[in-house]
């Protein structure tokens, strides 16, 4: 099957463009201007002119805006959790939930979310969860390891790495591991043996993603994304990802989607070459992001409003399709690709919310 091509800006002469005359064209031109202004190589000399991608002198990673008490009943069903939910991922009808203070991941059956979950012990607390080829991958920075969790058996295969991993991605038979404190991305072969390390002018390597034939690393301290040249283990061009890059995922159009928590926006980047394709304003404390390939919908949590909003991203500009009330402090979100269920995690001990849009 031929992969879908990335959505592009609609030509001015098209009927759709005529319905959205000034603002849409202005946003697209602004995106191109931003892209042109912010491209630079990762190893460029910043001594004379300063670091063009550094937002402030002493950068800090963006955090989720605090949530007020919930004013509306959360949509769908809410399943209790024993602690704050720190991240979520779903595979084959099973939800994996990482909880604060627990050296384990809980597995919930999404057909019966109220049933007692299975517990998968880990050597450390899970910092992030991601689904890769039907397997849940959990990173454990304090343990210097990540784990591949088989949702059918509940068994975890632990892989030790030389650093504190905070993100994992698959690139063919290779595995890419973001090592935050080492400011590097480690490359593992099919047997999980290290075969290379990419480090060059990063402030932190908070996540790594593969899409559209390219790999990028998310640097949340610099609030930027950088392309990775895996052929010679170097950092390529970099682009500013708003004023507070927070969460990231990929879509089936070969793009990396990043939330800007400080400016309230959803950004879409092509990876080869690295290019800012879209910028959608998302007021209300944008933070977590997940993608539903069946519906072509990007889901973004709004922590200032206790909401989750869904955007159809097939066109030249994202179009809002859903807006639903959530549990308090909805920092994490994932999608079950089998059913398009949207699952929200509360970082305020209000549990796990399961929505069927």
TrEMBL record:
InterPro entries, per database record: WD40/YVTN_repeat-like_dom_sf
Region described as Disordered: spans on this chain: 1-26
The organism's place on the tree of life at top rank: Bacteria
Name under which the protein is recorded: Uncharacterized protein
Organism classification: Bacteria, Bacillati, Actinomycetota, Actinomycetes, Pseudonocardiales
């Amino acid at each position: 099957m031929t992969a879908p091509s990335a959505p592009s800006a609609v030509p001015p002469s098209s009927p759709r463009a005529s319905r959205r005359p000034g603002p849409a064209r202005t946003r697209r031109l602004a995106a191109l201007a931003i892209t042109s202004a912010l491209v630079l190589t990762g190893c460029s000399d910043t001594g004379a002119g300063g670091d063009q991608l550094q937002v402030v002198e002493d950068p800090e990673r963006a955090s989720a805006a605090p949530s007020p008490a919930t004013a509306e009943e959360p949509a769908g069903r809410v399943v209790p959790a024993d602690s704050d939910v720190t991240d979520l991922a779903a595979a084959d009808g099973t939800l994996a939930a990482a909880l604060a203070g627990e050296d384990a991941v809980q597995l919930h059956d999404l057909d019966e979310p109220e049933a007692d979950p299975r517990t998968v012990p880990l050597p450390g607390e899970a910092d992030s969860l991601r689904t890769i080829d039907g397997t849940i991958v959990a990173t454990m920075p304090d343990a210097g390891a990540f784990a591949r969790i088989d949702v059918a058996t509940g068994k975890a295969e632990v892989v030790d790495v030389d650093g504190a991993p905070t993100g994992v991605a698959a690139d063919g038979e290779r595995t890419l591991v973001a090592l935050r404190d080492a400011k590097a991305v480690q490359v593992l072969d099919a047997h999980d043996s290290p075969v290379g390390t990419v480090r060059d002018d990063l402030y932190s390597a908070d996540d790594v993603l593969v899409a559209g034939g390219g790999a990028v690393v998310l640097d949340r301290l610099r609030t930027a994304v950088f392309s990775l040249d895996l052929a010679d283990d170097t950092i390529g061009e970099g682009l500013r990802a708003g004023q507070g890059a927070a969460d990231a995922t990929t879509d089936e159009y070969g793009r990396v989607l990043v939330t800007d928590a400080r400016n309230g926006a959803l950004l879409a980047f092509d990876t080869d070459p690295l290019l800012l394709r879209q910028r959608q304003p998302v007021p209300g404390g944008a933070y977590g992001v997940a993608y539903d390939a069946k519906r072509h919908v990007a889901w973004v949590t709004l922590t200032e409003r206790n909401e989750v909003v869904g955007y159809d991203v097939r066109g030249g500009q994202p179009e809002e399709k859903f807006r639903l009330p959530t549990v308090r402090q909805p920092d994490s979100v994932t999608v079950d690709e089998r059913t398009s269920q949207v699952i929200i995690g509360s970082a305020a001990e209000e549990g796990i919310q399961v929505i069927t849009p």
